[in-house]
TrEMBL record:
GO biological process entries: poly(A)+ mRNA export from nucleus; protein transport
Similarity field: Belongs to the GLE1 family.
GO molecular function terms attached to this record: inositol hexakisphosphate binding; phospholipid binding; translation initiation factor binding
GO terms for cellular component: cytoplasm; nuclear pore cytoplasmic filaments
Subcellular location(s) of the protein: Cytoplasm; Nucleus, Nuclear pore complex
Full protein name: mRNA export factor GLE1
Transmembrane segments: none
InterPro entries in the record: GLE1, GLE1-like_sf
Taxonomic placement: Eukaryota, Metazoa, Chordata, Craniata, Vertebrata
Top-level taxon in the UniProt lineage: Eukaryota
Pfam entry (one): GLE1
Keywords: Coiled coil, Cytoplasm, mRNA transport, Nuclear pore complex, Nucleus, Protein transport, Translocation, Transport
Known role: Required for the export of mRNAs containing poly(A) tails from the nucleus into the cytoplasm. May be involved in the terminal step of the mRNA transport through the nuclear pore complex (NPC).
Length: 262
């Protein structure tokens, strides 16, 4: 509910503003320790990324309520946004976007970690689980860049708005595609913020969609094996449908004005 989200936002904002906050039967304040505020900035930013790789990866619609709170907090406390991006880029280099190259002397295990895989006791997580986590983080990022906290001060610019999404898309299309990963990331990104990007960039955006269909999808196909075609097929049909209908559908779960009356 919108009212519940406001409660969450106010509590986080009060904590970061140095006010005493009640939590789990305790009263806490960042002023209780000289590094209290820095610690809370760090843990809060880390927690938002964890929501992306956990909550959003399983419940895709949850990207929007989480993103709108982070967007508002970012506006009032820019340090949280900076640290959030640092955590996000470390966990999901594709959010930069960046495909880490293997350097000489890097062990396989270390390289898997650089690519975003979780490695425990020399066991690398399964591909499906890895893709799900990356998907959750990209969807959260794509939601953040288009959302603003509705009760904030609208005079200033969004602290990390759609221009960053446009840049992400352009940089992504300049990278050589990876099997599995690239198709999934593009589809997630376009599903979540394609409608916002088309409003802002109009003809340029449609040119990009045409480029994806004619030039980039064949490049993804060239590196994709028969068993990895699922996501690529979904990306193809999504792009084709959008170009045919000259419209990008609103993402499922977007917060409407009526949500804030709940």
């Amino acid at each position: 509910a919108g009212s519940k989200l406001r409660e969450v936002f106010d509590k986080i904002n009060n904590l970061l503003s140095g006010k005493a906050v009640q939590t789990e039967g305790q009263t806490v304040s960042v002023t209780q320790h000289p590094q209290g505020l820095d610690f809370v900035y760090y843990k809060l930013a880390e927690k938002f990324v964890k929501h992306g790789e956990g909550e959003v990866s399983f419940h895709r619609d949850s990207a929007f309520p989480i993103a709108v709170v982070l967007s508002g907090i970012w506006e009032l406390h820019p340090r949280v946004g900076d640290i959030f991006l640092a955590h996000l880029h470390k966990k999901c280099p594709y959010a930069v976007p960046f495909y880490p190259a293997r350097k000489e002397g890097t062990s396989t295990e270390e390289y898997q970690r650089m690519l975003g895989y979780e490695v425990h006791d020399s066991k690398v997580e399964e591909q499906d689980h890895f893709l799900k986590r990356m998907s959750g983080m990209i969807r959260l990022y794509a939601a953040i860049i288009q959302l603003r906290w509705p009760y904030g001060n609208k005079q200033g610019a969004h602290p990390h708005g759609l221009s960053y999404g446009w840049r992400w898309l352009a940089q992504m299309l300049n990278l050589e595609p990876l099997a599995d990963v690239t198709a999934m990331l593009l589809l997630d990104f376009l599903e979540v913020c394609g409608s916002a990007l088309v409003k802002q960039y109009s003809i340029q955006f449609w040119k990009t969609m045409f480029f994806i269909q004619k030039s980039y999808i064949p490049r993804i196909e060239a590196v994709t094996s028969a068993g990895q075609m699922g996501c690529l097929s979904r990306l193809k049909s999504f792009v084709q449908k959008c170009l045919q209908e000259k419209e990008i559908p609103l993402p499922k779960g977007i917060l409407t004005p009526s949500f804030w009356r709940t």
